[in-house]
Amino acid sequence: MLIVIFLILIALLIIAQLKGISFNLRAVSSLVIGVVFGIFVKTTADVPSESLISLLNFFSDTYISLLKMLIIPLVFTAIIHAIVNLRHHEGSYLTRMAFKSIAVILILTGISAVIGGFIGSIMHIGTGMHFDSALNMSHSNTSIVSTVVGMLPSNPIAAMVNNNVIAVVIFAAFLGVAALKLHKQDNKVAEPFIGVVHSTFFVAKKLANMIISLTPYGVIALMSLMTIEHGLSTLLQMINFIGAMYIAMIVVMIMHTILIVLSGVNPIFYYKSVWRALLVAFTTRSSFGTLPVTMDALSNRLKLSESVSNFTPSIGATIGMNACAGVYPAMLVVMTLAIMGEPITWQIILLVGAINMIASLGVSGIPGTAFVAAGVTFATLGLPFNIIALVQGVDPILDMGRTATNVNGTMTTAVITDKTTKLDPELATKDNNALEGATKA
Hints:
Layout: H1 2-18, H2 23-44, H3 50-69, H4 71-84, H5 91-122, H6 132-135, H7 144-151, H8 156-161, H9 165-185, H10 187-212, H11 215-229, H12 232-237, H13 239-262, H14 267-284, H15 291-301, H16 306-316, H17 323-340, H18 346-359, H19 370-381, H20 395-420, H21 425-440
Helix pairs in contact: 1-2, 2-11, 3-11, 4-9, 4-10, 4-16, 5-13, 5-16, 5-17, 5-18, 5-20, 9-10, 13-17, 13-20, 14-15, 14-20, 15-16, 16-20, 17-18, 17-19, 17-20, 18-19
């Protein structure tokens, strides 16, 4: 019976799409319907049938897999495309844009960690909790040097096969710079390669649009599973931690909004332009999976420069991450210190913010990697690593808000970078003409 109801809901979404109902309305409706259906399943069946769970997993896993399928080709071509499109610009623009994007997102991550630490301290998370067994378990330290060396693309093909996105980003950046330098020396030799990259990038974007159109079907399954698997009993055990996390993330989003206003962008226009990316991030819990929607929001809706729209989200999905590498590890540190009975001072919170800025260089934008960022921070501070597992039961609920905050931080970085890194007017006109000619071709 429940399977039939779910299939009817899917059929209604298909009919709505065929009748031309807007994507935005269908996406939001699927989120609400998924939660309601999950609650209905919880109230009518103590143990949902394996067939129903398998069906929901089929829709959700297929959607996530298709999004992940885009990661390597989209990131690889987007990075190269963003760099080679600067061939009509002064070389300083590339340096300034890249440096500013990386610097802003790392600084925002550090500030987010401080916000998370202070709010966690104010809300006394961890106070009264006792997990001695977890505190006594040993943990291994991870060398920062080894982490950095592991990021280098010693074998680019293997990096692609193993989905080592950071290595792919580094390789694509080197390849793009090499193509840019070759174009200055001999543009006839470089143009065929640039043409292939250009075509491949737009094919990848077209594929992304096709997959994004499936969002309502993935969202309804994802939200149904979330509601079925994580009921109120799980939430009540960690309600203070969850509340502190979401309050901190809201404060971080307010910080983003203030920076957007200071950059000269109307916040209402901004959120009308990017809300679809935030919705996809919230439901899929994947910064990489959201990349196609993020790039579309920045380029086609906010009308930022194509170079920034492609480069900043790709970098922001591999480093930084205001919530996963900022708020979350800081909140866990505060909770751990409270459980251990250690004092929590503002000096410690600032130190955690600085550490998280560095640790965030190794974060990858797929579900679950917040634990990696927290692990690096814990190892650096010498805290018991296994205490991170204490919140694993509610992590999916946290990860939805974390991913949306991460993506919003990346888009805020793109706005700041675009509005504060300007081209010479003559060069900008020349580049726009070149891009229009290439697009028509």
